[in-house]
């Protein structure tokens, strides 16, 4: 599909790619570059509404790579461990099974440290 002077191509990763002057690039990066100029080193172009195919300039925002990674990490659900484990207790569960598991883990941890002389 042609869009002005570049051709849009959908790749395996669901991001629309653009064939521009004989080279492939992500379409959202090309759209940002045309509107705002060079993307600074260490920056990513973020889709504000989360739709990778919506490359309207109003839906794009440049942000530092670390800020971008933090934003997407917040969107990922935290894995939930089974009840009766210390990890579930550390995630905030205070049921009797998880409290017992945490106590058992603490005792074993302290015993192991004592055994190796720490």
Question: How would you characterize the overall build of this protein?
Answer:
With 118 residues, the chain is α+β, with helices and mostly antiparallel strands. It folds into two domains: 2-75, Homing Intron 3 (I-Ppo) Encoded Endonuclease, Chain A, CATH 3.90.75; 86-115. Helices cover 39% and strands 22% of the residues. The strands form two sheets. The chain has a four-stranded antiparallel β-sheet with strand order 1-2-3-4. A two-stranded antiparallel sheet has the order 5-6. The chain is elongated. The termini are far apart. The relative contact order is 0.08. The mean pLDDT is 80.
- Rg on CA atoms, Å: 24 Å
CATH class of the largest domain: Alpha Beta
Question: What's the total number of strands?
Answer: 6
Order of helices and strands: EEEEHEEHHH
Please state roughly what percent of the residues sit in beta strands, choosing from under 5%, 5-15%, 15-25%, 25-35%, 35-45% or over 45%: 15-25%
CATH architecture type of the largest domain = Alpha-Beta Complex
Mean pLDDT: 80
Would you tell me which CATH topology of the largest domain applies? Homing Intron 3 (I-Ppo) Encoded Endonuclease, Chain A
Please outline the major beta sheet.
Answer: 4 strands, antiparallel
Number of helices: 4
List unreliable stretches of 5+ residues: none
Read across the widest sheet, the strand sequence of neighbours is: 1-2-3-4
| Span between termini | 66 Å
What level of helicity do the residues show? 25-40%
Q: So what's the oligomer here?
A: single chain
Approximate shape: elongated
The structural class is: alpha+beta
Number of domains: 2
């Amino acid at each position: 599909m042609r869009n002005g002077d570049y051709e849009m191509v959908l790749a395996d990763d669901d991001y629309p790619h653009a064939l521009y002057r004989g080279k492939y690039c992500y379409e959202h990066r090309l759209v940002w570059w045309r509107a705002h100029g060079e993307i600074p080193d260490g920056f990513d172009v973020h889709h504000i509404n989360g739709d990778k195919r919506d490359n309207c300039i109003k839906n794009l925002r440049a942000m530092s790579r670390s800020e971008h990674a933090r934003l997407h990490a917040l969107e990922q659900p935290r894995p939930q461990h089974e009840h009766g484990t210390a990890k579930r207790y550390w995630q905030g569960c205070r049921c009797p099974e998880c409290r017992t598991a945490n106590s058992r883990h603490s005792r074993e941890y302290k015993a192991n440290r004592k055994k190796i002389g720490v």
